[in-house]
Amino acid sequence: MTKLGKGLEALISAVPESTDVSTGITTIKTDQIKPNRYQPRKLFNNEKLQELANSLKENGIIQPIIVTTKDEGEYELIAGERRLEASKLAGFSEIPVIIRSVSPKEQLQFAIIENVQREDLTAIEEAKAYQQLNEEFKLTHAQISEIVGKDRATITNFIRLLKLSDDVQMMILNEQISSGHARAILQVDEELRDKFSQLIIKNKLSVRKAEEEAKRIKETGTVSPSKKKKEIIEIPELKELEKNLKQKFNSKVKISDNNYKGKVSFYYSSQDELNELLEKLRR
Q1: Which residue range is the domain that position 265 belongs to?
Q2: Per residue in 26-39, pLDDT tens?
Q3: Is residue 246 part of a domain?
C-alpha cells in the first residue's frame, strides 16, 4: 500500500522542477484536463476561489497541478483542483502540470490528502471519501487512518456521520451545524434527529450545549423541553390585609399576587357603592 500520510510534497519532489517533458513537468491547456472522478469535495467557496484567481494573476502559478494521462490529448486531474479552477477564472489557457501514472485508489487517496491537509473538505465530504476507500477499495479504518495521518477512531466517527438523514447532512455541508453538533445528534433516536438538528440551529446551541440536550432527549424521549412551572411564593400576610381592606372600605376586596407582582381589586355593585368607595379612597 502506498503511504501518503506525509502529504503530497513527496509525490511532487519525485520529479525535478524542470520544463523538460521527460521529467514529467510540462504545460498543457486547461481545457484538456478533466475533473478527478474521485474528487471528494463537492462545494467550493466562490469568494475564496476568486481570491486565489486574483493571486494567480498577480504572482503566477508557482506550484504545478498533478494529472494523469486519460485518453490521447486528454488528462485527468489528480490534485490541485482549486488551482485549476482559479486558473480558469484568472484567464489562463495553459497551466504547468506534473504527469503521473496512478491507480484509481491512489487518485482518491491523493485527492483526500490534498483537501484534508488543507482543511478544505466539509465533514460530510470527508466522510464520503473515507467510506469510498472502505467500500470500493476494501481498506480498513486502520489502513485509512495510516494513509491520511488520523487515528482510527476519527475515521470511524466521520463515517458514522453518513447515518444521518440527507437533510442533516446538507446542514453540515452548508456549515449550519458542525461535525461536533452532528456527533451529538447521532446520540439520540433516529426519528428525533431531524427535529433535534432544527432545535440546534434555531437556538444557536454550542456543541457542549447540544451534547447536554442530547442527554436530556435520550432520557425523556422528546426534543421539546418541558416547561418548568414557576414556583409560587405564598405571602400569608396578604389574606389578613385583604380582610382589613374589606372592613375599612366596606367593600369586597381581592388581592391577586404572583411572586410579588399583582393587583388589588375593589368590587362594587351600584353607583352609590362606587361613589362611596371613591370618597373613601380620596380620604
Answers
A1: 237-282
A2: 888 988 998 877 77
A3: yes
